[in-house]
Design a protein that fits this description.
It is built from three helices and four strands; from the N terminus they run E-H-E-E-H-E-H. With 98 residues, it is α+β, with helices and mostly antiparallel strands. The protein has one domain: Alpha-Beta Plaits (2-Layer Sandwich).
């Protein structure tokens, strides 16, 4: 499964990069395949391990502020691995074919 999520502190002003970095640090230390862009961090793994990483990422931000916003989207597709890469490669292949 692929989980794309965004964790944002609330009530700390507009500069939230330091808080977001705490969440991304948890993701990167998890060992799961991951990718971070301007809006979301995506991880790939089994349900329990992916949700555990999301929970710990939220907790890392929550530890520094009293309120956290979580946006989460999941692609639950048993038996598929390397989806983070293969989905993008498929789109790029179609773009190249023009």
């Amino acid at each position: 499964m692929i989980v794309a999520f965004s964790v944002s502190p609330l009530g700390v002003g507009e500069d939230v990069g330091e808080y977001v970095a705490d969440a991304v640090r948890v993701v990167r230390e998890s060992g799961l395949p991951n990718r971070t862009d301007a809006m979301f961090t995506s991880i790939e793994g089994e349900w329990d391990e992916a949700m555990d990483v999301v929970k710990r990422a939220v907790a890392a931000v929550e530890a520094r502020c009293g309120r956290v916003s979580l946006v989460l989207k999941a692609d639950i597709r048993p038996g598929v691995t390397n989806g983070l890469t293969s989905k993008v490669e498929t789109v790029e292949r179609y773009l190249a074919e023009g």
